[in-house]
Amino acid sequence: MTVGWVDVDGERYPATDGEKVRDERVVDGLRLWHPRRSKASAALVKGVDIPLEDARVLYLGGGAGTTPSYFADAARAVYAVEFAPSPASRLVDVAGTRDRLFPVFADARKPSVYAGIVEGVDVLYQDVATRGQADVAVKNAPFVRDGGRVYVVVKARSEDVTAEPEEKYEEVADRMEDAYDVDRTVDLSPFYDDHAVVIARR
Amino acid sequence: MTWYERGTDADAVTEELDEGGEPDARDLPGDAVESGVFGTRDGYYDALHQATVEGARRRVDEAVDTAERDVINAVRTLETVGDSLNELDERTRDWREETDRVPVEGVVEGRNALEETRDETRGFIEERTPELAPNLSNLADPVLAARLIALAGGLDELARMPSSTVQVLGAEDALFRHLRGDAPPPKHGVIYVHPYVRGTREDERGSAARAVAGKLTIAARVDRYAGDLRPQLADELDEKMERIQGRDDG
Ligand SMILES: C[S@@+](CC[C@H](N)C(=O)[O-])C[C@H]1O[C@@H](n2cnc3c(N)ncnc32)[C@H](O)[C@@H]1O
């Protein structure tokens, strides 16, 4: 129920104990969680601590469920919100393989929709890759318990194609201060260009 | 309110999503156990899991159907409007500019309206098809991806087809002529517009069409069954095409 590490070809990768969902490699019985396939894995490899073990997690921008599936291998409960029909369909397939992965087909900009379904969480993880990323995180702050950890993936180019990525990260971090104490920003290179994760606490 | 105060199944979750409420950090499983609706937290989670998976499945399936129908209708519109526009342009080319002497403003306006519709429709397809089929839209352009989905009758159908069928989608007439014994088998259907098919010289075009159809078929399957974008599919096609186009004719 925790995120482990495996050595492959001289590199260390995160890995979890759970049923395989895609074409990921299985090493020593663990699902390899590749940092080029998942921004959360990239963050872990870059030394970011995401306390998933036994955590209740609100995951915004669940996509096709790849990263949520790894989260669900370690966490107590994962609520994955996704609003685009196609990825949501795959997310529901993946949720079918994970007892504690709850799919929520809804818009993360309207958290009131799922207020009666999502419980107070220890971790908020967000990867929505759209305009107004910071606003989404702020609007969902009421779900986060005091002291809860917050990870917001920022895609610099979602906001503005011309601006410097660092400026964008700072802008998002500033706006997040409305609801959180921002700790630091970690960029996800070389795994993802123009992406960073802003780490904060409620 | 909470979902479990409405019931313990998918309908309760769906109703709660429709009603909504005030976000907070409540301990829902704890509250549910305390209120006696569930005996244990695990019991709560088990019921919530079944209810959310089932409820989401229904709504998502409906939404996917709608999204797919929209793309299919749009690509059919694009074709019809494009054909009309070409025909109109062809037939009126000579006199359309001479609006000062011939009363053709209506034709010019109509033509421009068609052009606008065509461009908007293309924009719609370019926005929506990658959401429906990210890998197919990455390997082909979104318009070709949408045409393949429309010809197959849906992404599900496309994903089930052998690549030899995908290769000749849109060449049904030629295929029937061949089956009647009147013609050689078609080498390609609409995938002809793919730069890797059209841009390959005649004698290797059959191989190119086979390679492109093969990768597009895999892309459609990844889109249908996995949904994540896999950029390596494009790299693999690039490599394969480099080999095909690099063959010398000797
Ligand atoms: C980069 S993808 C997420 C990939 C996923 N986190 C993973 O690693 O497996 C971003 C997703 O966020 C979704 N998204 C964007 N805006 C959203 C919103 N307002 N509400 C819910 N989902 C949203 C998109 O549809 C897309 O599927």
Give the key terms.
heterodimer, A: 202 residues, alpha/beta, Rossmann fold, four-stranded antiparallel beta sheet, 25% helix, B: 250 residues, mainly alpha, Serum Albumin, Chain A, Domain 1, binds S-adenosylmethionine
How do you describe this structure in short?
Chain A is of the alpha/beta class and 202 residues long.
Structure in words:
Chain A: One of its GO terms (biological process) is box C/D sno(s)RNA 3'-end processing. Chain A: Belongs to the methyltransferase superfamily. Fibrillarin family. The complex is a heterodimer of chains A (202) and B (250). Chain A is 25% helix and 32% strand. The longest helix of chain A has 12 residues. A seven-stranded mixed β-sheet of chain A has the order 7-6-5-8-9-11-10, sandwiched between helices. In chain A, strands 1-2-4-3 form a four-stranded antiparallel β-sheet. Chain A is built from six helices and eleven strands. Chain B is mainly α and 250 residues long. In chain B, 71% of the residues lie in helices and 0% in strands. The model of chain B has no long low-confidence stretch (mean pLDDT 93). Among the domains of chain B are: 52 residues, no CATH class; 118 residues, Nop domain (Serum Albumin, Chain A, Domain 1). At the A-B interface, helix 3, strand 7 and strand 9 of A face helix 1 and helix 3 of B. The site of S-adenosylmethionine has 18 residues of chain A, from helix 2 and strand 6. The site of S-adenosylmethionine (SAM) has 18 residues of chain A, from helix 2 and strand 6.
